[in-house]
Amino acid sequence: MSGYWKGYREHYRDITKLSLPIMVAQLGTIVTGYADTMMVGHYSTPALASASFVSNVFNLVIMLSLGFSYGITPLVGALFSQGEKHKAGAMLRTATFANAIYGAVVLGAMVVFYCCLPLMGQPDELLPLIREYFILILVSMVPVVFTHVMRQFADATGHTALGMWIFTIGNVANIIGNYILIYGHFGAPEMGLTGAGWATLGARALMCVAYLAVILISKRYRPYCEGFSAARTTVEQLRAVTAKSLPISMQMGMETGIFTFAGIVVGWLGTNSMAAYQILVMLGCLGFMIYYAFGAGMAIKIAHYKGLDDNQGVRRATHAGYVLTLICTAVACLVFVVFGPDIIALFTRDEAVIAIAVSLLWPLVLYQLGDATQVTFANALRGIGFVKPMMNCAFAAYVVIGVPLLYVLGLPQHLGLLGIYLAFFVALLAAGLLFWHYFRKATR
Q1: pLDDT at residue 185 greater than cutoff 90
Q2: What is the pTM of this model?
Q3: Using alpha carbons only, what angle is made at residue 182 by residues 196 and 347, rounded to the nearest 5 degrees?
Q4: What CA–CA distance (Å, rounded) separates 198 from 36?
Q5: Which of 108, 270, 301, 441 has an alpha carbon within 20 to 30 A of 135's alpha carbon?
Q6: Nearest to 283, CA basis, from 352, 351, 334
């Protein structure tokens, strides 16, 4: 045991140091999401159901954008470990252009989706609420795209604490905005769900401006800014960044897509099921966001080892990251089992919605194991830059296996939300095992 600890102590320490600020920022995002859902849920069940639909649709957009920005980690992380700060700044310039182009394409697709809302089979009485909230969240995605780029750049240079502070400030602003605008406090009009949309837009714009200000003003980033200003972006450079970024985006998009598809299917089950599903999604985020922080910290450390051609360091960092992720998963599951009913009751007073959500706590616990496995090895592949197989793995796990299984178990087999969560477990575990296979292959 002492020999094991001697070999892995440094990895546990470094990954934890990188991950804790990310975890604090993620927890802040969870608290904001919880507050958002609670405030909207207590305002009305139709508002909660409408928020569920729009949130699940835009979770896909957020993950596509976030995944594309993740291509920055192996590129900037390797340059950082080699001391090439000017080159890292030039890489940031290229990545900013690439992410802006990709973001414009994705948001353009969402405009088309908005025009097709009446065809989505959602309850007619919810469409007016859905439309107003949808537009505000769509506009708020513009600052999100650039925030993702700057955050991944800062994280790749080991400055994960910056995201912790900026996201904390943004999340507090979002909660305050919700309180004022949803219920009409301090002389503001009572706007309900639309008020929550304005609060989200304002908070996301604030975080983007804060990141930009720190990077431009801080001495820490001066060499990177010099490299950014002196560089010239070419088509070849954009292609190189896209080659790293697009497979990660597609992998995360397909993963999130199964949840988005589930959100649409749940809409066919009725308003109460939609509201319960939104609460379960928020609970699931408690586990996901916590152990994803360790996956992200692990990916940064792996990228640094990869820049130094240290394969043993890569393998040991991955092992340590997986152990830490499983510990976080166990803690999250314990919270679900012990405190789940009490947490669910915070979101809504509707007894029917509470009963549905409470009945699905154990299926929610089950799929955490599959999620933790796929998070770890997806981030390991991202850290070493071996990203091409990720699209094929995600397609097989989520599209070929997950989507049909979700539909069959949820509707023809009449299992409803239970069938949907069983499908999540199978799809996520399949993805995790495939990512693990390719990681082993790449690091032999």
Answers
A1: no
A2: 0.75
A3: 80
A4: 12
A5: 270
A6: 334
